Predict the 3D structure of the following.
Amino acid sequence: QVQLVESGGGVVQPGGSLRLSCAASGFTFSSYGMHWVRQAPGKGLEWVAFIRYDGSNKYYADSVKGRFTISRDNSKNTLYLQMNSLRAEDTAVYYCAKDSAISTFDPWGQGTLVTVSS
Amino acid sequence: EIVLTQSPGTLSLSPGERATLSCRASQSVSSSYLAWYQQKPGQAPRLLIYGASSRATGIPDRFSGSGSGTDFTLTISRLEPEDFAVYYCQQYGSSSWTFGQGTKVEIK
């Protein structure tokens, strides 16, 4: 079955950097676009970034543009999110999710918590 | 950017009752790109409805979606104990994805 497992979360100081990973299995990773979505504590869902199946196109939410970079390694079935210049408001659970043909998020990983605090 | 506004914020109902959740868009959304998700505490969201009205794999038929343009509805015909959760609508358009702020369905 399709499985997505995030890792790399933790506590980082404001202005710091962190790289998240999402290991995919159970489907042909190189054929699907992938997303990162985040959820601040007690808040709703916020789409963060998308990458096409071949990495040729990347899109970002305005709130992270210029600070976050989405990438993928299809040979390793792994999605990444490089997060730089982190702010307190970036504190959230970060989920990776597989994109469907009609741009839904299905399924989702279990999430990894990023805490930006001094 | 298209803004999705969900109402009500919280719905207090009893098991067996009907739940009607609303999602209104700030501009017209293609029905093909309107979806609904369920999220339970401590869990990742789960896709319920895609294309405004199609149930995802394994979703019970008590869940149904409808609507077009700027107004969409998720209906749960008879609430089961496991349906008490937060529900989000989501749309895609112009290389951007947005979610509504969520509706919490709680036990009355």
Notes: Chain B is about 0% helix and 60% strand. Chain B has a mean pLDDT of 96. Chain B touches chain A at residues 1, 32-33, 35, 37, 39, 44-47, 50-51, 56, 88, 90, 92, 95-102 (CB under 8 Å). Strands of chain B lie at 4-7, 10-13, 19-29, 34-39, 46-50, 54-55, 63-76, 86-93, 96-99, 103-107.
